[in-house]
Every structure is written in C-alpha cells, then in structure tokens.
Amino acid sequence: MTCLKNIVKVEYIEVKNLGPLYHITESAVKLYGVPTFIDASIIGLSSVEITDKLDNKSRIYTEKLIFKTDIRIKFPQKHLVYRVTTADGNMFLVGDVDRPYTVTTIDEVFPSSITESGLIVYTVTYSSAHNILYIP
User: What backbone torsions phi and psi does residue 18 show, to the nearest 5 degrees?
Assistant: First the structure.
C-alpha cells in the first residue's frame, strides 16, 4: 500500500467540465486548457491511500481519498474528478474522464459535547487499471 500524505488542498470538477486528458506517461497527464475546479475547503491535512491487486492477470489500483470539512458540499448528481495538492506543491488526479467514475460517501459526525468537532468526513474511492495520475 502506498499513501500520499500531507494533502493541503482538495478540489473537484464534473467530468464533463474537465475535458480530455493528455497522457504524457502511463501515470502522468496534462490537463486540456484551464479547467475550473471547485475548492472543497478542507480542514487539516488529508491523504490518499493507494492499494493494488491482481485480478484475472490484470493489476487493479484502488485510490481512497479522505478529507474533512465543516461545510456540507452540495455535490451535483454527476460524475466527479478530484485534484489533490500536496504540501510540496505536487498535484494528482483521483478519477478519470472515462468509466469507472469516483464514488463519494459522506459521514457527518454529530458531536456529543460543545468541545467536540462536528466535521463532515468525505471518502472518495476510485478503482482503475492505472495508478494515481500525476499532473506535472
């Protein structure tokens, strides 16, 4: 298992607004134009866990992005791609413009006292035949 740690920014965009991806290498892409991502306004640092397994002689990678925020994001009922930025400025895509798409789940934590945090935890899961995509 690999882990991208120290993610300081999470953004999302609908697949239809992203446009085509130009694959520079198997795991690096260049975005077409200047797509407008929406900032998820995360609190604290986030991470992406990357696991892989062999399935019918093909390697399948699963990416799991977890981030927290104090606002309820009004996601459209559309397919989304996420762009994450690490503390050192590297950017990666979680998701792709083609199927399969990302799956986002929301876990709202209700504090039992005033001193506890009421953050909303978002978990984004994505599985495909390629590893997480780097944006140079």
Answer: -80, -40
Nearest CA among 7, 18, 9 for reference residue 79: 18
pTM (predicted TM-score): 0.90
Backbone angles phi, psi at 68, to 5 degrees: -125, 145
> Sorting pLDDT into bands at 50, 70 and 90, what band is 116?
low
- Measured CA to CA, the distance from residue 81 to residue 44 in angstroms comes to 21
Tell me how far apart the alpha carbons of residues 109 and 121 are, in angstroms, rounded to a whole number: 8
Which two structure tokens, joined as six digits, stand for 4? 């991208």
Structure tokens at 111: 């504090």
Give the amino acid at 102.
Answer: T
Q: What is the pLDDT of residues 47-58, one digit of tens each?
A: 999 999 988 888
Query: Is the distance from CB of 48 to CB of 117 less than 8 angstroms?
Result: no
C-alpha closest to that of 37 among 67, 9, 65, 6? 9
